[in-house]
Design brief:
The chain is built from 25 helices and 15 strands. It is an alpha/beta fold.
Length: 485
């Protein structure tokens, strides 16, 4: 009994020391930050963030200066980076890898930041093929943009040349900084690669560093003043900050007062976004997701069986009771049937693969959904008839004519999903094959945009895949057929 009591007290003492060290870590980093800055270069002038806002230089003087900023300390509001790594683990590695990362979170929280970062990098990247890693471009920008502080963003946009220094691996943050914030150079941690696969380890920072002269050229650096922007909470031990004439630091109290960057202030609109998670995967929300998964599987099975086995007059109230909702602003007009007339073509914007099913539910009648890139699994579980389009104009036109002769058809002429409040350019094919067109959420693209409050664009499926995947999204098709579609 005495041995058990001794073991328990020893474990309790060990845990309490770890918690104590964790609580003191913020103070330690704040003190170390200033000490490192002064030790690296004694002529650096350290100032507080408000004095940076009050600087009275003209816009031309700001545009001639170079800003070196700490991405996590001076731009992003959250202090934790866990949800970014959870996105990588889930989207690039799968459900099991995400679960492993979640189970390791208590250890990540207890240990110091360097060890925690190494753990997250190893879990997320070990065994991932380098050439297939697209999460940094296709998933992370949406979530990182939502974490940008408006005040820090305003500082960033005042300067001509911008260098972002990040604690994150460069493959996670570079695409966001370059594509959406117009940052000229990104300094992040490099990952070790073996035979084209990440091994989950980071390279020594000294092996991958470049000096500012190598970035901008000797002549440009001599004619520009270099300013640093960081945080009291984080150490500025990176050698880039030793080349600054002045460094401005923001504290956590000031950052908590920052506003989130409004969507209309994005330097580049966020139109394309991929990924399966529609929420920020913080530890709590990720835990809730894993708890919900068994219930979600049961609910999906229940709704699927009800949807395919019962008529609309019966399954609609049952599905509504199970939590499904369909908001209909006004009744969808029903055209008068004329003898020998073809079916009605229902046109919809395209947020998810569920859109045609909701159209069918709103009309309370069966119709045929014509969709691109439909998998066999989706065809099997779909409660309505589905037909795959080929992206060949003549073939698809003939198929649509055939389906319209058999009944009503639903089509999403954007050609691919768009989850943000934008409409991609509509294919004119849908307007060429039917005399009677009923718009589900819009008439043509302009009407649909006004009805939903979405912005219309000239972007297409091709633009989406070029940006997110680096290709045009065609698999196993000839170049000629690609051009014809």
């Amino acid at each position: 009994m005495a041995e058990k009591e001794f073991c328990f007290k020893t474990l309790l003492l060990f845990v309490s020391r770890i918690f104590h060290r964790r609580l003191l870590k913020n103070t330690h980093f704040q003190q170390r930050s200033n000490r490192d800055c002064y030790s690296n270069a004694l002529n650096i002038k350290i100032q507080k963030y408000p004095s940076l806002i009050l600087k009275s230089e003209s816009e031309s003087e700001f545009s001639s200066q170079t800003l070196i900023f700490d991405v996590e300390g001076a731009l992003l509001k959250p202090s934790s980076l866990f949800h970014y790594f959870m996105l990588v683990a889930f989207e690039a590695g799968g459900l099991v890898r995400a679960l492993v990362l979640l189970l390791l979170y208590p250890i990540i929280w207890l240990v110091n930041e360097d060890i925690g970062m190494n753990i997250m990098v190893f879990v997320c990247f070990f065994g991932i093929k380098k050439d297939n890693f697209r999460v940094g471009r296709s998933v992370l920008p949406k979530f990182v943009l939502e974490d940008v502080g408006y005040e820090g963003f305003e500082v960033l946009m005042r300067y001509g040349k911008k260098v972002g220094v990040s604690e994150l691996p460069r493959v996670m943050i570079e695409a966001f900084l370059r594509d959406y914030l117009e940052v000229d150079f990104v300094v992040g941690k490099e990952l070790k690669v073996f035979h084209g696969y990440f091994v989950g380890l980071m390279e020594d920072a000294t092996k991958t560093s470049l000096n500012l002269q190598a970035m901008f050229g000797e002549e440009k650096m001599n004619s520009k003043e270099v300013v640093g922007f960081g945080s009291f909470h984080k150490s500025l031990e990176h050698h880039y900050f030793s080349q600054c004439k002045e460094i401005y630091l923001v504290n956590e109290t000031e950052k908590k007062k920052w506003k989130n960057l409004p969507r209309e202030k994005y330097p580049k609109p966020l139109v394309f976004h991929d990924g399966r998670l529609a929420f920020k995967p913080t530890p709590i929300s990720t835990l809730v997701m894993f708890i919900w998964i068994p219930f979600g599987i049961f609910l999906f099975t229940f709704r699927f069986l009800i949807g395919i086995s019962l008529p609309y007059s019966i399954n609609t109230p049952i599905l509504a009771f199970s939590g499904m909702r369909l908001k209909q602003s006004k009744p969808i007009p029903t055209p008068k049937k004329i003898e020998n007339q073809k079916g009605v073509l229902y046109v919809s914007n395209h947020r998810t693969l569920m859109d045609p099913i909701y159209v069918s539910g709103g009309l309370r009648k069966q119709l045929t959904a014509m969709i691109y890139s439909l998998s066999k699994a989706c065809e099997i579980v779909a409660p309505i008839k589905t037909v795959r389009l080929t992206r060949d104009r003549e073939t698809d036109a003939e198929m649509m004519e055939k389906m319209l002769k058999q009944g009503d058809v639903a089509v999403c002429p954007e050609g691919t999903t768009c989850r943000e409040p934008y409409l991609l350019r509509f294919s004119p094919l849908f307007a060429e094959v039917s005399d009677e067109i009923i718009p589900v959420a819009i008439h043509v693209e302009g009407v649909i945009g006004r009805a939903l409050g979405f912005e219309c664009t000239n972007l297409t499926r091709k633009h989406k895949y070029l940006m997110l995947a680096g290709n045009e999204g065609f698999v196993g098709k000839s170049k000629s057929s690609n051009n014809s579609s």
